[in-house]
């Protein structure tokens, strides 16, 4: 996998000469790790420890020095024990993040010291300073990528990308709907849709007027066509607003559930598709029978982990990352607003990450 | 369309010589019709009248003498005004039925006097004794088909056929689930699945013990692998029962909604599909977010009218009808248990058709 990625991302063969550069400084290396021994309330179960890395490295292994790693909702669910897949415990937490290759084993062919990598799969354990991993378990990104964008590329932007690509054959000018539009996935959807000439109707939770205007402004600036509140969606004005488009929405993204999801279904066009990728309201998706039978809507779900596992050695995944990296490098795809915490300050970070209406994504910064 | 069907169903060219046989007896012909002027409670709005057929027939028209026509739930919804498509009023009611061609226009090429036909589309108006229609608006069936089977072929058996064929690539030995298993569609599913070596787990409403055993026996006799009640599905024994199969259900059919639909979703396997074709409980379909995201279930609906309209001139429709007719002729596909009423006795027929736990399908018999 890494070898293939290296080719796609202009792997620089000459870097092999640098391979053993860090041998000395990596001796007796310790990793500072955030881990859980038991599932439960993350504010109680997440702990920090030091871990002494083995001094010898397997021939196909690499040492990665982590740079940044966000706290996503899936991390919180994993700590709570409510995520669909769980690592064996104790486990270092963190599903997403960016690191730099600090040392490579003798038989590693696709990675070099200094390369920027992201984990290939879920539950890799990004919340630590150093990790020994297999060459196969990471994906190399271009050297000149923004590190914050790289740290946050593999969950939200990839979810948005796949949901826009894989369910409906969208044409320029087509309209899509989404709730939770200011979520990490939501803002990724807005930016990708803007680049691909897809119009977005974005629904956010009702909130104080000042905050509402600020949020509306920030989403519009990213490329949102329309930003409305959940409250507005239930008024007759929503129908009038949709009538200003020549065609009805073909696709909707739901991360809320309950009444909010039902409203998305209600405003979809004939044979529209609603993709669920989250359930913030903790309420089930409710679909009127008539919408399923007569409007022939299709309801399905997107799970990034599953997609990645099915496409581990797949050119589609590399194409997607390449597309996203190119958009990032040309400043057409911004990372989400973030707040940075050190690993030492993990208790504040978890507290911030689990509160409602937070200002941005919480990101651990290791160096 | 009729011409194509005639070829598929061994159209007998020599029949053209019989064409004008009924000219005399059809003069001054009256049709006895059940119609509504306004939508509402069918027991109040359905009325009967006599209609004098025009004496001249258009060159591409035919006169059909209706033989039998059932009352389906969609007929009741159409009279109530709650169906997704509504005919302009006043309208003769009846979406399904079988008739015999009594006279053909000069330019009709695919139909002959005596041919057995069914309507091609919804809202054709089968609850009457004679109807002038276009050659294009009917489909010819084989002459030797059972008339009761023909009268009830186009809604329930076709719905079952398409739901089994079009959503999941089922292999012999695969398991499917359905609620409302004793419905018209349900018993069609059981019989087709038996022929195609698909195993069916059939869920019926809780009911008195004697009736339950009788129903279980009748469905098992048709080919049902397992018959259980809604109550049983919610017990841990249901999981044990499913474990006796090597693979989990890939496909589920829902005509109930509410908790019953949620249970179907719960027992589906990874990436399973639930097709909704009815909503007897009048409750929406509720899908847990986790089932959509992590189990990647797909929820969709089947609407026979829409499928037929999309496949009006399509070989798939003729293949389906041909397959069903062959099964009927070889006694491998039974018509549902029926109770017969004359058009004159329409008030009792409607009353019977709209009561719960009825013994069989209510069918108007015209001659």
TrEMBL record, chains A, B:
Its EC number is 1.3.1.104. It is an enzyme of class 1 (oxidoreductase). It catalyses: a 2,3-saturated acyl-[ACP] + NADP(+) = a (2E)-enoyl-[ACP] + NADPH + H(+). Residues 40-364 form the Enoyl reductase (ER) domain. It comes from the Eukaryota. It is found in: Mitochondrion. SUPFAM superfamilies: GroES-like, NAD(P)-binding Rossmann-fold domains. One of its GO terms (biological process) is fatty acid biosynthetic process. Its main location: mitochondrion. Belongs to the zinc-containing alcohol dehydrogenase family. Quinone oxidoreductase subfamily. This is Enoyl-[acyl-carrier-protein] reductase, mitochondrial.
């Amino acid at each position: 996998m890494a070898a293939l990625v290296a080719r796609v991302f202009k792997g620089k063969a000459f870097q092999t000469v640098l391979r053993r550069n860090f041998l000395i400084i990596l001796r007796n290396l310790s990793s500072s790790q955030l881990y859980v021994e038991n599932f439960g309330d993350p504010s109680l179960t997440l702990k920090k420890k030091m871990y002494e890395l083995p001094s010898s490295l397997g021939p196909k292994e690499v040492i990665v020095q982590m740079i940044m790693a966000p706290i996503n909702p899936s991390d919180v669910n994993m700590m709570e024990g409510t995520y669909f897949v769980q690592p064996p415990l104790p486990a270092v937490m963190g599903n997403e993040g960016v690191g730099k290759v600090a040392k490579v084993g003798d038989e590693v062919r696709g990675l070099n010291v200094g390369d920027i990598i992201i984990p290939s799969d879920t539950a890799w354990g990004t919340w630590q300073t150093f990790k020994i991993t297999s060459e196969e378990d990471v994906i190399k990104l271009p050297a000149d990528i923004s590190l914050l964008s790289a740290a946050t590329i593999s969950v939200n932007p990839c979810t948005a990308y796949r949901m826009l690509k894989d369910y409906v054959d969208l044409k320029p000018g087509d309209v899509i709907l989404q709730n939770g539009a200011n979520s990490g996935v939501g803002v990724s959807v807005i930016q990708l849709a803007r680049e691909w000439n897809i119009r977005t109707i974005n629904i956010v939770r009702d909130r104080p007027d000042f905050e509402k205007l600020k949020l509306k402004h920030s989403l519009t600036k990213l490329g949102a066509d329309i930003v409305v509140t959940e409250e507005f969606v239930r008024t007759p004005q929503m129908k009038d607003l949709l009538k200003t488009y020549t065609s009805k929405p073909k696709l909707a993204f739901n991360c809320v559930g309950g009444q909010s999801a039902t409203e998305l279904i209600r405003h979809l066009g004939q044979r529209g598709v609603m993709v669920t990728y989250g359930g913030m309201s903790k309420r089930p998706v409710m679909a009127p029978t008539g919408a399923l039978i007569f409007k022939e809507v299709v309801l399905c779900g997107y799970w990034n982990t599953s997609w990645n596992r099915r496409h581990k050695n797949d050119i589609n995944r590399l194409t997607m990352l390449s597309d996203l990296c190119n958009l990032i490098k040309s400043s057409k795809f911004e990372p989400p607003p973030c707040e940075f915490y050190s690993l030492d300050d993990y208790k504040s970070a978890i507290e911030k990450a689990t509160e409602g209406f937070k200002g941005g994504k919480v990101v651990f910064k290791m160096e």
